[in-house]
Amino acid sequence: MSGTQFGKGCHLHLIDGSAFIFRAYHALPPLTRKSDGLPIGAVAGFCNMLVKYIETNTGPDAPTHVAVIFDHSGKTFRNDLYDLYKANRPPAPEDLRPQFPLTRDATRAFNIACKEIEGFEADDIIATLAHQARDAGGRCTIISSDKDLMQLVGGGVEMLDAMKNKRIDSDGVMEKFGVGPDRVVDVQALAGDSVDNVPGAPGIGIKTAALLINEFGSLDELLDRAEEIKQPKRRQTLIEKRDQIELSKKLVQLDCDMVLDFSLDDLELREPDPDTVLNFLTEMEFRTLSARMAKQMGREAPVIPEPTATPAAAAEDDPAEAVPFDAEKYECVRDAEALQVWIDRIRGRGWVAFDTETTGLNEMTADLVGVSLCVEPGEACYIPLTHKAEAGSDDLFGSDALAEGQMDFDTALSMLKPVLEDPAILKIGQNMKYDAKIMARQRGAGFADGITVAPYDDTMLLSYSLHGGEHGHGMDTLSERYLDHTPIPIKPLLGTGKSAITFDRVPIADAVPYAAEDADITLRLWKTFKPQLHREKVTTVYETLERPLSPVLARMERHGIKVDRDTLSRMSNAFAQKMAALEDEIHTLAGESFNVGSPKQLGEILFDKMGIEGGKKGKTGAYATGADILEELATEHELPARVLDWRQLSKLKSTYTDALQDHINPETGRVHTSYVQTGANTGRLASADPNLQNIPVRSEEGRRIREAFVAETGNKLLSLDYSQIELRILAHVADIGTLKQAFADGLDIHAMTASEVFDVPLDEMTPDIRRKAKAINFGVIYGISGFGLARNLRIPRAEAQGFIDRYFERFPGIRKYMDSTVEFAKEHGHVQTLFGRKIHTPEINAKGPRAGFAKRAAINAPIQGTAADVIRRAMVRMPDAIAHLPAKMLLQVHDELIFEVPEAAVEETTETARRVMESAADPAVHLDVKLTVDAGTGDNWAEAH
DNA sequence: GACATCACG
DNA sequence: GACGTACGTGATGTCC
């Protein structure tokens, strides 16, 4: 064929390169190149697929022309049409990114044409080439299963699903879309695509779309004659969403007329050059594959040397055992020359374990004292930066002068900044959010905007993804458990109590082994955990739910929320007055003075002195005086009623109005919480220092505390919360048709439950019946028991059990879900969320009361955890989605997100954020129940909620 | 540092 | 038939 022009009798193969890469990446464990640890799993898989492709494409149907087409990174013209196009797509995993260019190299090494064009997707290039081939009278086979390419089929163009080895022609397209290839675009425009975030027409899927297109002939015709549609909802959608549908069509329509700087003739099939192929495979250190290719091409198999048996190389195979911990080997870096040596090593390696030492635990106020680095197990350094000189005999309280033998602070950070920010160098930390926040606050000559640590892996998050529910994820726990090594304790260095010192007062000689060891441990943990992700099938959880969330949380925490000190202070004084009055009253009622805040003293007053009936409880033998007990007593006695009032005020004052003031950052005037990403076993976040996830709202008096959380002048606080998200998820996972329908119809779900369980028509519903049903609904989520429901509703246990029995009779699917969940936990030792998060249940086979706890936790975890995953996904996507707006995401409260927005942008932010939240499950999971989000705004959190 | 209590979803 | 019990968190004050 050589030298002839593409035309009749020619057969062009177009390979969707990106599909090959992702399939290869997900099919193989995260392999790394032995000599330097470069991730090459996807490249290996890609090459294997190329070889297989070459081997199978012989004979009469073989191609005469071939090209592999890639997506060019960055935005395409479709993003100009619609800024949210493909906005759902998570960024490529960190260990895949460096492999993209290598797949191009591989294609060229096999002497196959390799094409990509900036601003266009691979699909457009494929479309243009397919049309050129067809117009020239030749054949074209597109090797891909991407349905977006189906519009190209026909007139000699076919698709080939390489996985299933199935050809797709016009009939195949008809099967998939219900219309011929020429109307595929019309159907796609209506149906939309959650994967690419093409909006389409809400409520219309492929089936309905095909029906409509077949009835009206074309999309244009359909839109013009939309008035004729009988179904009112559908008609309204098509009329109202016309713009959106037409935009969708533009998004899915491939560009068949690109101007290319090459022709079909340039794609002619060429024999690979043996030297080039083998050189490439050798460089990648693919032993099996290079031997196979060598044999095929009649060459000697190339020799790929095993890495020399240094201790470091041995560590690759057995990270925990190979290199003993040796504090003597840690280096103290004291000048630029020494630091440069480390930086060169890091650049050669492509990754570094990184840890900071600071003067405190609060990332918003602590000062940086030093930095440690580690590139090989056992080989770590500490760079002291702001250690203070040791106290001499004359200055008892320590000098403020810097200790000798430390690098200049600015010089060190200016040298580290390019490394810490280099996208090609992976930073590895334990709880890296802390270190990233510290580094972001460092400013100086050459780093005026702070230092943005990215990209990073976090061993704490790796452990959480792998071992959530099994144990804690602090460094000491992980080191002992997985490295069999007890880290040097910090206590002896800092001391305890009043005499405790900050890290900058620790002598450098003592700081080096402690600090460097932390980086050493972190690197070893990473080497232990990272390869386990794939084996445990939690790569997606880590890469989409944990890793990208960490920097998002860091940013929210750094923003903080404005809290008005005067408001809190005034409330505090008012509470104090009321409490004093109540205290007098209580003492009078008791006939003696005692500490109202002491449950022990209160118990003695109530049950011993006053002789009220009610028993001891608890292992300590003390009387129980919890709110539920006092409430019962309060119906007959005055004193417990007053104590309840006092307790409420005491709680509000001490935990909120007083403590919160101490958390206002003097520099920012705002309160900066810290989210604990690994805090809850279910996947929920926890908030600490201060906890902003438990600010009062249920009582009128408490809710007023939210008035102190305010927006900056000219701004509003915006609150968006998922409506009934856990019940919706329950309806989906347990597959309860009635519940799903109720949500679809927008019914009051508790009233609906009441109506089903108690046989009361909706229009005869009373608030009390509804309240009972609501308690049952929540009980179900928690792993209901007769006892628990009875206590919650304060009804006899038998009656509560009757409710539950009736509920399960009415919704047998729920009991089935609960049983099968517990069964799953017993068999696998974990349960999981819809997004693949594993929650381990080590207690599930325990005996006694612990078994009950474990069972209920196992039932609750997939529901609470899936809801947690959903809002995490929304949070991960939010920064990009609102990047064009002046809005800031400030807080998360499990099913609620709070933003601060300039007044003018409130509406658009609401709309955008709501869309992100409501579609957060897509495309990974399609929920049978839609998620809805309620929104509110105001000058403070009380108004916004 | 354990325990009881209570704030939130 | 008895065991015990609603799920998930964090902060505070008392008491030893």
Automatic annotation (TrEMBL):
Its EC number is 2.7.7.7. GO terms for molecular function: 3'-5' exonuclease activity; 5'-3' exonuclease activity; DNA binding; DNA-directed DNA polymerase activity. Residues 702-905 form the DNA-directed DNA polymerase family A palm domain. Residues 7-270 form the 5'-3' exonuclease domain. It catalyses: DNA(n) + a 2'-deoxyribonucleoside 5'-triphosphate = DNA(n+1) + diphosphate. Residues 330-534 form the 3'-5' exonuclease domain. GO terms for biological process: DNA-templated DNA replication; double-strand break repair. CDD domains: DNA_pol_A_pol_I_C, DNA_polA_I_Ecoli_like_exo, H3TH_53EXO, PIN_53EXO. Keywords: DNA damage, DNA repair, DNA replication, DNA-binding, DNA-directed DNA polymerase, Exonuclease, Hydrolase, Nuclease, Nucleotidyltransferase, Transferase. NCBIfam families: pola, PRK05755.1. Belongs to the DNA polymerase type-A family. Single-chain monomer with multiple functions. In addition to polymerase activity, this DNA polymerase exhibits 3'-5' and 5'-3' exonuclease activity. This is DNA polymerase I. It comes from Phaeobacter gallaeciensis. The lineage of its organism: Bacteria, Pseudomonadati, Pseudomonadota, Alphaproteobacteria, Rhodobacterales.
